[in-house]
Write a structure and sequence with these properties.
alpha+beta; Histidine-containing Protein, Chain: A; 27% strand; globular
Length: 89
């Protein structure tokens, strides 16, 4: 199964180390392969190094993509987490 969704980084500090680590922890709780796709490349949401390399600052847009048995649930929950991180420091 494949799922994807456009997301925007709302945190004023962007997807910096602490929220990125939380994002990666949640991504690793799913069985699907999950990616963050930006204008500069495709980054594994399962790797903290890749998520940091995506360089997602406040206002940045990305596409969450997932392939696997729980792809839709993974994309939905990760998109929700990014919204919840609006004021995360």
């Amino acid at each position: 199964m494949h799922a994807s969704r456009e997301v925007r980084i709302l945190n004023k500090l962007g997807l910096h180390a602490r929220p990125a680590a939380e994002f990666v922890r949640l991504a690793n709780s799913f069985r699907s392969e999950i990616w963050l796709v930006t204008a500069t490349g495709r980054f594994s949401a399962l790797s903290l190094i890749d998520v940091m390399r995506a360089n997602l600052d406040c206002g940045a847009a990305a596409r969450l993509e997932a392939d696997g048995v729980d792809a839709e649930k993974a994309v939905e929950r990760l998109a929700q987490l990014l919204k919840e991180m609006r004021d995360y420091t």
